[in-house]
Structures are given as C-alpha cells and as structure tokens.
Amino acid sequence: MALTGRFALLVALGVVPVVVAGAVGAAEAWLALVGWLVLAIGAGVLDLSLAASPRQVALHREVPDRVRLGESVTTVLSVENLGQRVLRATVRDAWEPSAGLAGSNRARLRIPPAERRRVTLQLSPWRRGDRRTEQVTVRSAGPLGLWSRQATLAAPARLRVLPPFHSRVHLPSRLTRLRELDGRTPLLIRGQGTEFDSIREYVRGDDVRSIDWRATARHADPEVPGNMRLMVRTWRPERDRRIVIVTDTSRTAAARIADEPRLDTAFEASLLLAALASHAGDRVDFLAWDRRLRGRVHGASGPELLARMVDTMAGIDAELIEADWASVPGQVRRITNRHALVVLLTGADSPGSARGLLSVLPQLTSRHTVVVASVADPALIEAARARDDLEQVYVAAAAERGLLDGERVGAAVRRLGALTVTAAPHELPPALADLYLELKASGKL
Amino acid sequence: MTPPVVDTAPSTTTVTDAATPTAPAVTPTVRAFLRHRRAWLVIGAVLVLGALLVLAIQGGARTPGPAMGADNPAPAGAKALVEVLRDHGITVTESRSYEPALAAAERGATVLLYDESGILDDRRLRELAAASDRLVVVEPAFGALEALAPGVRLAGAASGPVDAVGCDLGAAERAGALSDGQRLLTIDDDAADAGWQGCFRDGDFGFAVVAGPGAGGGELTMVGATTVFANETIAESGNAALAIGLTGVTDDLVWYLPGPADADAADAPTIGELTPGWVSPVMLLAIVIVIVVGIWRGRRFGPLVVENLPVHVPAGETSAGRARLYARTASRTHALDQLRIGTVRRIARVLRLPRSAELAEVADAAAQATGRDEAAVRQLLADVQPAHDRELVELAGELARLEAEVQRTLDPRAAAPRAPTSDASPDRDDPTGRRP
User: Which residues of B touch A122 (CB under 8 A)?
Assistant: First the structure.
C-alpha cells in the first residue's frame, strides 16, 4: 500500500472546515476535524478497493544478450494487464545502478484489461560484467489517485557487459607489420623466423639466389632436352605456434593505475595480442588464474576466439588473495606440451609480491619462451621528478624506491630467462604486441 | 531526467491467450505476511496484554509520591508517622486543597502545613492560621514567615545534631534532641516580645523549632526542616517524639499539602481560553499531515538494489605510505640515498656505462660530461649527509639538476629530461599510441 501526494493534499484541505467550524466553537472544530479525517480515510479505502491488482500482471522483457562497455542498448519491458480492471500503474524496473539507466526508472502506464504496454529503457553500462535486474515493482493507483496497491514482481534479466577492447585501434598498424613479415609476398630468402613453404617455377624478378638446383634437376624432363624449368623455393614466416596468455587476477590486479585497474589493462593487452596472433595463424589460449582457474579459453580460433575471450573476461574481477604461482606451470602443461610463448600478465613491481612468480619462472623458461608483462605506474615517474619542498622530496624518494624495486624485479625476471614488458597502462597493449612481432620476426616463438 | 519512453498506442493489443502466466510476486500478500510473522505477532500481542493486565492490577502506574506525602513510603515521604498516628486512633485526613483543610481547622483539628512550592498566598495563610487552633508549619518559606510570624527569619542549616531544648514546649522537652539536617530560624526582639520562643538552639545561629501565638490565638509551631517528619530520618534521635508530640495532640489531624488548585492564578484566563477554538484541532491536523506526507514520501518503491562492487586499490598508496614513513622518522639520509641510486643508474645509462660500473666511475664520467668539479660531484652522489631538512631539499634538487645537465650535454635538443625508466614499446610516439 502507498499514499499519494493527492491524499496528503486532501488531508491538508481539512484546515478549511476545521477553521470554519472553529468560528462556531471548539467542540464543533474537533468534530469537523474527526469528520474530515474519517472522510479522507474513507475515500482512500474506497480508492484502494477499486484499484486493479498489481499482481495480475505478466511481464515480458526484450534485453540484448551482450554489449560492449561504453556502448548503449535499448531494453524493452512489456507489461500486460491480466486483471479485469484498468491498471493505472507506475512501474519501476530495478536495474543495478551500474547498468547506467538513462533518466528515471519509473514509467506511468494506463493499461486496459487484457492489453499490454511497452516501456523502453536506454542502458549505458559503466562497469564490466553481468548487469542484472531482479524485479519490477508495480504501484497500482485507484481511480481517485489517493491510495495505491504495490507489489514487487520477480522478472530477472541479465545483460552481459564485455570488456571494451579500446586497444583495437592499434590493431591495423600491427597487422600491416605482420603482413610485411607474412607471406602475402612470399619470401624468397630464407631467414630467421621462416619455414619452408613451397617449390614453384621461377618467374622473372625472383632472386636468382633462391633457385633450388636440386629441385630443378628433379623437374627436368630428360625426354625434352633443353626444356629446363628453373624451380625456386619459397619461405614463409613460421605459423601454428602456440601462445598461452596467463592473466593474474589476484590482489595485485586490483591496483588501480592511472584510473584503470591492472586487470583491465591486462585484458586489453590479452585481447590485442590474441587478435594479432590469430591473424598471424598462431593458436592462442587464455587463462585467468589466482588460486583457482577463473576463466579459460582453449581451442578457439578466428573470430570465435575473441568472442569467447571477451565473454570469459566479462565476469572476472580481481580478488584480494595471493596468487598461487606454483600451480601455473601445471596449468600451462595442461594446455600444451610443445614449446609455446607464455605471456604472464601480472604486477611484478616489488620483490615481496614477485617472489612466487620468480620461484616458478625457471620451470616455465626451461620449456617455453616466457614474457612477463606488467603495468608501470606513470605517477611514480612524475612523483620522482618533483622535488620542490620537503614533502615532495620524501614522496620522490619513496617513488624512486618503488621504481628501483620494479627494476630489480625486472632484472631478476630477465636473469631467469624470461622477457619483460613494462609500460604505462595505455601503452602496455601495443608494447606487448610489438614484442610479439619482434619475437615472430626473429623466429623465437 | 527524461522519463522512459512509453508506447501509449495499444501495441500488440488484446492478447487473448489465457495461458500467459502472471509474474511471480516477491511481495507477500497481507495474509501471507500475517501467516509468516504469526509467531512475532503472537508474542507482541501477549506482551501488550500482559502489560495491560499488570497495569489493571496495580491500578495505574505508581509515581513516586510528593515529599512529605501522607501515603508516600519513599525516604522523603511521611507515611511512617501517619501510620503510627492512625494506629493510635488519630484520624488523619489528607488534603490537597485549601477549602477542606480550612473547614477541618475550623472544626478544631490540628493542621500540618507543608507548602513545598510556595503556592498559598499571604491572605490564605493568615486565614488558615486564624482559623486553626493548632497549626504546624513545616519548612516555612520566606513568604509564609512574613505572613505568619513577621519577626521570625530563615537562618540556614544547622551545624549538626541539636540537643539544647531550651524552651517549655512539651513535645520539645520529650524529644530532648534532634538529628542532624535541621534548618534554623531566628527570632528578633519584636517577635520575642510578641511571645515567640525557640527550641533546640544551635549555638548563636538560631532554633530548629519555633513556637508562638497564632493570629487567631491558636498555637503556631514552625519546624525548620522536614527531617523531623520524613520516613528516612524520623527514627533518628528525638525526631519521632517531636513529630508525634506536635501532630498527635488532637484526635483529628489534617495533613495539608497545597495542590495546584490552590494557586493564586485562578482568576487569569488560561491560554486555552485566549486562543480561538480551531487552533488545537488545526495543530492536531498538522501532525496528521506530517505523518501522511512522511508515509507518502517515505514509502519505498520496491526493495533496494544491491550492487556488488569490485575491489580497487589505488596503486600509489604503497608509495605514499612509504613517503609518510620516511617523513615521520625524518630518514633524511635514507631518502636521499634512494634518490641518489636512481640518479646514478640513469646517468650510467645515459653515459652508456656498464651496469657493473662503480659509483666513482659514474661520478667521474658525470663530472667530465658536465664540466663540474669531480670531487663536488662525488660528494653530491655519495658522501654528503643532509644535516637538516632544508639541506635535504637542496641536495635533492641538485641531484635533479645534475641529471638534467648530463642529459643536456649529450643531447642538447632534449631540453626536458626524459622519463627515468622506460622499456616500453619502441614506437612510443606512434600517433595511435594513445587510446581514445
């Protein structure tokens, strides 16, 4: 049950009869007051009894399955009146605040019996993950609009908000570089990072040094002397390499650097690397790990890979627990036994928190090429420069200490045979992609 | 706030399939609510009933009675004395208003007057004194003394128990002594001439009990404090003897504590009479309106929505905490050493010295590059200990200047120092290097 402002106004209007009766006498004034209150409450009760039931309602939703963070979607809620009376309702759809509902979430509807009305809501989610609504509240007013009946109805819906993948703007330039490596114009010179592609007939313009004399000899037809066909070997960059991306979702990933949590940066970098590598024909597997497997994408390729990756990432948030690095080699081994590029996206910035990582790195580097990618805090670099007063000097000293710690961990990682990429949040995804291209070009995958 | 778009046109009208199920309600119906909360409702009802029952049995809540109340068993009451008197056949009549007390006094009853709040005015006091044969005034106020015994004045509290009877009052002689906590009265010469005498002298300060002739020729006794009559202290010393001696002389005793009805203001119109008749109802109506508006605005539109927010920790907190730690312990040398290590490493990198280069080598190379004095550079990079805060700030600034100078000598175009550490991507200046 709920009251309306109209009822409050009705009660307030009781001042008039009370004052008028008060001119006659005090007893009459009291009588007028009681009479007015009885009248108002009676009208309210009558109104309530005439209101349509808010429970005799069917709800239908049209909610898109998923949306990228930063984009807007339109959802529709249809309210159908199953009762016998006209439903004068205010309807509230209880989306989570982070679903980013534009405007008010209340809609006034007047639905005759056995009809339905559509309420269109514009959602612009501002947080990754599953945005939900569990219930719809219907407040049904009576014909006088004094008292209302109210009921909350279960009508769950879910909108999956995918990571934004802002770093895809870096993809075209990296793909161009990849194409330069790639065999769109098949390479005729054997070099590092290439594998044998095919033998074909020599055409003008081919490098004479690439002529394969043995193949030429095999193709020479002894019946037709003088009809010598020169054969050349072609090479192409190595393909079908394995890449395993391990994202650390433990407490270090919860750190917010330059207004972006480390985890989101790691996701951006993973997505860019995966998009690039799947274009290059490599096979990408994704793991999100802290003390347990938080998400895993295995055996997907092409467009499906990215779709599955963003879907897996959508629901993952950092947890305040210490990562269990000792189990990571086992997880990688479950994906592949062959040599692979293992990318560890973590926050290796202090010796204390990196100890677990450093202890298992030798196991990984003995079998795989390992890259440790971590986000550097640009604020530390800024802070280390400002030295105008005492407080700033202490802050600069602490920042310098932090930078040194990061460098020490980086050096330790490199000593253990892994590669490091450290960059500011917005620069890490392209930096990792460039390192991948470098590795590919030099045939270290 | 734009309201959500509502299609008012009857779209997909008249859905006739009767199979459409209603959405399951989360809000319980009234009946379900009552059934669900039955246990609590029963417990509440039992508690209310029990409270009503207790109230009915006790006949209303018993408030602590007035001081000197005849039926007040509290320490300040006087039930003990009254009960003893009744046991001895004396009719004690309680009175809270003036007229019955005056009537009883005229019939010859002893009157005990205790006017705690000074309600009675002079006229009524004199009238009562004139009418009564025996009047005992307990703890008389200034106004009462002025009206009844002009020469008797208040004289503060007694210094301790008093035992100097010093008068021929029978009750006082029987009592012999009074307990501690008496209040004193003095008698000036005019009053003494008029026949007033004091009992229980406390040194030169005054008397605990004063007796004299009333206005109508009756006996008038004034007792300075309620200590003599109160339940708490009546059993001490000779208090009881004095109290009984004063009040138990006649068969009738009127125990008169003036009530609000005796106030002098009866003639003036009350606020209720001055205001128009509709003011009180309108005030009540205003309260009702406030309640109605509160319900209108306060009624929640469905349950609150819970949002599970992920944990985010600002990354700079560790660094900021460490800086405050340095500052609190004033670790000047330690802080400066951190800055020095960073500077030395960056200079070594800029000058292409090996990672294993000694500090002295770096210092010498920096001195050569900048043309500074070698010893001074070495001092700056290693030896000087900052003695106070200002020196620390100066040295930190000097380190930054040295670093900038080294970079400028090698690359005059780079006016601004580059980022101290960066093994970021080789194409950091890529136009697409920043995200939208």
Answer: 4
pLDDT at B422: 43
Contacts of B433 in chain A (CB under 8 A): 426-427, 430
A139 touches chain B (CB under 8 A): yes
Our CA angle for A284, A286, A289, nearest 5°, is 155
Closest chain B CA to residue A395 = B323
Q: Residue B154: is its pLDDT beyond 60? A: yes
Distance CA A119, CA B261 (A): 70
DSSP for residue A58: E
Q: Residue B57 is encoded by which pair of tokens?
A: 């049995």
Q: How many CB pairs under 8 A join A and B?
A: 322
pLDDT tops 90 at residue B78 = no
Q: What band does A144 get if pLDDT is binned at 50, 70 and 90?
A: very high
Angle at B416 between CA B411 and CA B419, to 5 degrees: 95
Nearest to A393 among B276, B345, B392 (CB): B392
CB contact (8 A) between residue A256 and residue B426:
no
Closest chain A C-alpha to B116 CA, distance in angstroms: 36
Q: Rounded to whole angstroms, how far apart are CA atoms B225 and B70? A: 16
Say whether pTM exceeds 0.90: no
Distance of alpha carbon A328 from alpha carbon A331, whole angstroms: 5
> In the numeric block, which tokens belong to residue B303?
């349950």
Contact list in B for residue A22 (CB cut-off 8 A) is 276-279, 281-282
